[in-house]
Design goal:
Layout: E1 3-8, H1 14-25, E2 29-31, H2 32-41, H3 45-56, H4 62-73, E3 82-85, H5 91-103, E4 110-115, H6 118-128, H7 135-149, H8 152-157, E5 162-166, H9 171-186
Parallel strand pairs: 1-3, 1-4, 2-3, 4-5
Helix pairs in contact: 1-9, 2-3, 4-5, 6-7
The protein binds BIS(adenosine)-5'-tetraphosphate.
EC number: 2.7.4.3
Region (NMP): 31-60
Family: Belongs to the adenylate kinase family.
Length: 187
């Protein structure tokens, strides 16, 4: 069973690829962005706290997202594998995840970075048109990515299970490459 962490800038294709791999490998796709958007839409206490951060393109505070992930990974469908999409997004979250995985005696198999140039990311996100896909918010999300999330590349490189993949090719070609990796991890 695979345990994969997807890294990459907003619009790099984390959600697209995580969804495709989850369908193929029958392991849960855990997207913090999707969980937070559902919470916002349902106006839950978490959603009410998260909304203004998301609308501005900022990260939701770590304690909220960390609680969310702790709960989600403790659910029974996550015991034999998962694909994490959008978590961790900074070093505090990555250290938390490392500690959690030690506690539950599960190591991750790969941290996978999807590499896409900024100008391509902006065009993709403008084309998608989600509520937080306005040009101003996209620029802010990219800045947050470079300041807080990109340092995770060094963090995971130092752990020896890091892969960087060209995400600037058609989605099906990225999926094909990733399927090979997952098959290796599953064996
Ligand atoms: P996310 O939901 O994680 O959003 P994202 O990074 O913008 O999307 P992703 O990279 O998954 O792009 P996608 O595949 O959809 O986060 C949203 C917000 O939630 C954050 O700003 C933050 O506020 C909050 N949040 C989430 N996690 C958090 C955390 N851990 N801590 C704190 N806050 C958190 O692809 C985008 C577009 O590109 C699509 O239209 C797709 O069709 C297209 N595309 C994908 N791959 C392509 C390819 N290879 N070629 C051409 N187009 C492609």
């Amino acid at each position: 069973m695979a345990r994969l962490i997807f890294l990459g800038a907003p619009g790099a294709g984390k959600g697209t690829q995580a969804k495709a791999l989850a369908a193929f490998s029958h392991i849960p796709h855990i997207s913090t962005g999707d969980i937070l958007r559902t919470a916002v839409a349902s106006q839950t206490p978490l959603g009410l706290k998260a909304q203004s951060y998301m609308d501005q393109g900022n990260l939701v505070p770590d304690p909220l997202v960390i609680d969310l992930i702790r709960d989600r990974l403790s659910q029974s469908d996550a015991h034999n594998g998962w694909i994490l999409d959008g978590f961790p997004r900074n070093v505090v979250q990555a250290v938390f995840l490392d500690e959690l995985l030690v506690d539950i005696s599960h190591a991750y198999d790969y941290a996978i970075n999807l590499d896409v140039p900024d100008d391509v990311l902006v065009q993709r996100l403008l084309g998608r048109g989600r509520q937080d896909d306005t040009e101003e918010v996209i620029r802010r999300r990219l800045q947050v990515y470079h300041d807080q999330t990109a340092p995770l590349i060094n963090f995971y490189q130092s752990q020896d299970k890091f892969l960087s993949i060209n995400g600037n090719i058609p989605p099906e070609a990225v999926t094909e490459e990733l399927r090979g990796l997952v098959q290796k991890a599953v064996v």
